[in-house]
Amino acid sequence: MSQMIDRACDLEERHRAAALARWSATQTPRANQSAHECHACGEPIPEARRAAVKGCTHCITCQEKIEKYGKA
């Protein structure tokens, strides 16, 4: 009986780890891949900025606020 419980726990742990890995992959930005919307204000990031600044996650206005005040 205890072996069945151990196997069930192992299986559940593997399923949880796989689910967390899938979720985590959708949450972390890819290196050099810019966001389409600003993470601070939600406004679209212009294509020119996305092309010029690889991996950007904020619009120009919010990025300036972050650099000046430490937050958007």
From TrEMBL:
InterPro entries: Znf_C4_TraR, Znf_DskA_TraR. A zinc finger (dksA C4-type) spans 38-62. Keywords: Metal-binding, Zinc, Zinc-finger. It holds the Pfam family zf-dskA_traR. GO terms for molecular function: zinc ion binding. Residues 37-68 form the Zinc finger DksA/TraR C4-type domain. The keyword Transmembrane helix does not apply. Signal peptide: none annotated. The keyword Zinc applies. One of its GO terms (biological process) is positive regulation of secondary metabolite biosynthetic process. This is DnaK suppressor protein. It comes from Kingella kingae ATCC 23330. The gene is dksA2.
